[in-house]
Amino acid sequence: MTPYGSHMPILTKYFDDFKPKTAWEFGCGDSSTPLFIEHCESVVAIEMQKPDWFIRITDVYGGNKNLNLYCMLGPFAAPEYLSLQQKRFDLVFADGHMGSRWMQINSALSKTNVIITHDTDQPCYHWERVSLPSGWVWIDIVNHVPWTAIITKSADVIQWAEQFETRTFSDTQLKTYERKQ
Questions:
Q1: Is the pTM of this model over 0.85?
Q2: Residues 150-154: contacts with CB within 8 Å, 24+ apart?
Q3: What CATH topology corresponds to 3-176?
Q4: Where in the chain are the domains?
């Protein structure tokens, strides 16, 4: 498994077990975007970093009627766009611009009950800037490197995550935890 795909076993298992119908994806991918298209009735996927990658993803997947594909370059436009949405999503996948991964999560907290994000063993993403509301937990799944995290307030999802090797944090613990321990 390549580092770019270490999140796929978790995403695939999540889709198999929970069957989300709507998804918001920060950062389009060759593995994640087709997974969302295959399993969801409605997908919003936003490329945040590379115009040529957006063109490639559009050429390959743009014909899917359940996919709304956008190019919002830079770290801030896509999280701000999500915060303006009236709709809620069954799942938000935060794997977009490195400079705002934490902001992607913060903007998603009011739009879903489940956020999955990638590269959580890397401190350069400023995970300490995530502000979890009361009742939410951060669960690092450390079976594959880079790590993948599930951020949720759903008791069913918290229990489901126990099948993996995990580290779980509240907001206060998340602020003081050092990655790669």
A1: yes
A2: 150/10, 150/14, 150/114, 150/115, 150/116, 151/105, 151/109, 151/114, 151/115, 151/116, 151/117, 152/113, 152/114, 152/115, 153/113, 154/113, 154/114
A3: Rossmann fold (3.40.50)
A4: 3-176
